[in-house]
Amino acid sequence: MLLKTWVCVRQKMNIEKQNKGGVRTGELGYGLTMVQDLPWTLETVLAATGGRLLEQPRQVVFRSVCTDTRSLEPGDLFVALTGENFDGAAFAAEAAAKGAAGLVLNQSPASPLPVPIVLVPDTLKALGDLAGWRRARMADLRVLAITGSSGKTTVKEMTASILARKFPILKTSGNFNNLVGLPLSLLPVDSRHRMAVLEMGMNRPGEIARMTEIAGPDLACINNIQSAHLQGLDDLSGVARAKEELFAGLKPDAIMIVNLDDPLVREMAVRYPQDRITFGRHRQSQVRATQIRPGSAKGIGFTLHLGREQVRVRLHCVGRHNVQNGLAAAALAHGVGIGLEDIRLGLEEFTPYDKRLQIEELPGGLRVVNDTYNANPASMLAALETVQELRRHHRAVVVLGDMLELGGESHAAHCFIGAAVARLGFDYLLAFGAFSGELVEAARESGLGAERCRVFASKSKIVAFLKELQRSDRLGVGDWLLVKGSRGVRMETVIAELKEAR
User: Side-chain half-sphere of 497: how many Cα atoms within 13 Å?
Assistant: First the structure.
């Protein structure tokens, strides 16, 4: 009988979801997921982390690896993470009282505890080491790693949709893509899985290098390089260097997935000897798109070329940038041997992820585009261009919150977007946040009338203004409302309040 261990984290998750093709897909969020094979014993924890045991060894098999005492179950191994605003070691006694079978700490506890303690210099590194140890022992597993300034979650989901038609796969849930999330995504892997599709995000140099070390990718895609997270990376060159850590850390037999449409990605790829698969609209791309037809709110069509083969694809999402995301996913799938027809079917089964260009129609006939998950200048412009393409002869209102983490480029970036709103001919710009003044001033300077672009002190006041537009018949049936901003601004509350106000 296989010994089962569990990885516990904090959010609801789907342990194994039956997809249309009949292949089971493990999806890790912050919840519980089953792991089989390679049980976590005290000996394997010591071997993986290089830690020091504070007492005589004993025979222990851990039920799970856990990083939060609120989710801890008896028999778990508790890894006490630390950060700027928390210290997991402070919860060591609580973890032991709740039945933890062992603790991984970066300091000795204040008083003796009745459980084995593995002492390490850095518990975050230890968590990554545990995941890397497990991944290294899954010889048949192929890991596909995806990073980029925008679109990486969509590429991950599209790739998973394709691969799940053929293989048992593991994928990260949402954008669970940092130095905590990536190890927790890998810990559930077992001998059933053939593919793991992992997303890598970052805020500062060195993070992607460490995640690459942990994951050991077989295929690696840098989707694009744009102005995002500049606060920790200074400028676009800093972003490029941080993203390049993925290519720089690849093993010799890995495959690079290269966006030929992005000059920075194209330039960095030539520095590495690994085989590559290229994608984009560039005529030399191995995986490319032609005959793009935006269609309607129901989707966008294009012809997908894979070498000399081609097929017509209909994505059930909007935005020309999603064609590019689809090409990246197709290139990744091609790299593991998936044929053109299965790539088509997998792309057509993909549906937009939460708060990413999601379209719904309110009872009064107003069509709302919810793109509130996050924002940077490139994704903001893509959303504006998408709605401009969809609106046709209808009116369109833009509600924008701040783009965060842009550092010294914040002023220029918000001015750029304000000017784009005016240039694209939107009827109203309603702005909220610390940089709303820059947005509105740039829109006015670019020709949008002063009465049509306004700064609001609260999101509730934006909702009240939108209701007034509806009452006065300046916004109604068939018209469009785009709401977007960075995650920290939580612009989705505008949509929620608008629905409640009906």
Answer: 16
Q: How many Cβ atoms sit within 10 Å of the Cβ of residue 332?
A: 31
Widest pairwise Cα distance in the chain: 77
Q: Which two tokens stand for residue 414?
A: 């918000």
Residues 6+ apart with CB under 8 A from 357: 317, 318, 319, 322, 369, 370, 371, 383, 386
> What is d(CA 155, CA 197) in angstroms, rounded to the nearest whole number?
10
Please count the other Cβ atoms lying within 10 Å of the Cβ belonging to residue 490: 13
CA angle (138 as vertex; 335, 175 as ends), nearest 5 = 65
The rounded distance, in Å, linking the Cα atoms of 446 and 450 is: 11
Measured between alpha carbons, how far is residue 216 from residues 61, 123, 136 in Å? 26, 20, 8
Are 442 and 413 contacting, i.e. CB atoms less than 8 angstroms apart? no
Using alpha carbons, list the distances in angstroms from residue 426 to 67, 103, 365.
47, 57, 19
Name the CATH code of domain 358-500 (choices 3.40.50.300, 3.40.50.720, 4.10.520.10, 3.90.190.20).
Answer: 3.90.190.20
Tokens of 88: 């997991």
Is the domain spanning 137-349 CATH 4.10.410.60? The answer is: no
Confidence of residue 353 (pLDDT cuts 50, 70, 90): confident
399 CB-contact burial (10 Å; exposed 0-12 / middle 13-18 / buried 19+): buried
Portion of the chain with pLDDT greater than 90, in percent: 76
For residue 4, which of 82, 75, 110 has the smallest C-alpha distance?
A: 75
Whether the Cβ atoms of residue 343 and residue 304 lie closer than 8 Å to each other? yes
User: For the chain, which residues make up each domain, given as ranges?
Assistant: 4-127, 137-349, 358-500
Looking at the predicted structure, is the pLDDT value of residue 15 above 60?
Answer: no
> Look-up: residue for tokens 């599209």?
158
Element (H, E) at 145: strand 142-147
The reported pTM is 0.87
Q: How far apart are alpha carbons 175 and 403 in whole angstroms? A: 18
Binning pLDDT at 50, 70 and 90, where does residue 368 land? very high
Options 3.40.50.620, 1.10.10.10, 3.40.1390.10, 3.30.43.10; CATH of 4-127: 3.40.1390.10
Query: How far apart, in whole angstroms, are the C-alpha atoms of residue 266 and residue 260?
Result: 5
Phi and psi based region of residue 425 (left: phi greater than 0; alpha: psi -120 to 50; beta: remaining) = left
Provide the 3-class DSSP secondary structure of residue 82: strand
Is residue 45 within 8 A of residue 118, CB to CB? The reply is yes
Pairing of the two strands 169-172 and 4-8: unpaired
Cα separation of 26 and 17, whole Å? 7
Q: How far is it, in rounded angstroms, from Cα 224 to Cα 155? A: 11
Asked if 482 and 498 count as a contact pair (C-beta separation under 8 A), the reply is: no
